[in-house]
Amino acid sequence: MSSQQASLLLVDDDPAAIQVTGRMLAHYPDQRFATSGEVALRLARESRPDLILMDAEMPGLSGLGVCKALKADPALADVPVIFVTSHDSTALQVAALQEGAADFVSKPLLASQFTARVRAQLRSKALIEDLRRDGRLQGLAARPPPLEQASRVLIVDDDTASIHILRHTLGEMGKLHFAKTGEEALRVTRDVLPDLILLDAHMPGLDGFDVCRTLKADPQFRHVPIAFITRFSDPRYETCALDLGAADFIAKPYTPAVLQARVRNLLELKRRTDAELHAMLERGGIWATHASPRSWGQRPTPSSRTTPMPTSSSSMPRPAACSASRSSRLWAQRLWPCWAKVWRPNSPASGVGRTQRNACLCPATTARGLRWRYPLPASAKAGAG
Hints:
Elements: E1 7-11, H1 15-24, E2 30-34, H2 37-46, E3 51-54, H3 63-72, E4 81-85, H4 90-98, E5 103-106, H5 111-137, E6 152-156, H6 160-170, E7 175-179, H7 182-192, E8 196-199, H8 208-216, E9 226-230, H9 235-243, E10 248-251, H10 256-283, E11 287-288, H11 302-305, H12 328-333, E12 342-344, E13 354-356, E14 360-366, E15 369-373, H13 378-384
Parallel strand pairs: 1-2, 1-3, 3-4, 4-5, 6-7, 6-8, 8-9, 9-10
Antiparallel strand pairs: 11-12, 12-13, 14-15
């Protein structure tokens, strides 16, 4: 989503504050304004914005009340809301995040930090919108996948004491994994496929910025949210981290309740992304004939790569839906590719269906669709002939 396309709704009972915020976001020309919560709701329902930036304390309907009403409206529930307020109490921040706010920014605003957080929220929303659009093109309906296991959170920090504190703070939020170097973080990421990565900025060897850059360049992990948790609170570090693709930047020392609320929201973002991937893969006309849940996450065996394949789409039986529907997480994130012969019905190339002979379906999915990677070895090509 480009800055020219994004639609912003700025909500504040102080017109001067709206002017300041609007000037900071001048490269987003599609801006609308509201000076009360009631007007904000009306404008949002008339034309759905891409992002809402809102004050917390307003006469009449407060920012918290507006956020609650937005999240209760199915048409507006997934519009990200950033609270922009001078009331920086822990209780207010936790309450805003618990109501579904995507972020909470305290005044006075620093332009570089503020715009970086706006870009991060628009980027996350664009990913889900792209997946949803791809689903609509194929007649899909997004629905959450079955919740079969606890969320996996990877904590990366070279300070053992920091790891212990995070372990104590987040112990009830999922299954925790740990790494103390950037290199170890990349290895563990590929082994455990986390739903969220909490990353220190500065570590010996490969630092947090390099880890983030590497993972965001890999289609298999591009949609996994990364939050920096670091004692380096310099605005330059925050802007760099967010522009590299991080979903959040949390400075130490942090308040445990605030950290828990932010982590909970990031895991919810991942769940929604998985739901879109799940819908697209389950009902989007993708049928795998040689992939099984047992083989996901493992290197393919020779037998699974050499099974002959029908030579025409007309002789290709339409199999039952692949049991990928049992777990979108495995489809969306699995490290090792499932060596599969795939039939895509109603292909524009043939009109009736086609086969992919010398490619495998890498379960990683980008916002633009499926990626075909890892050519089959010669033995598999011979078997498919």
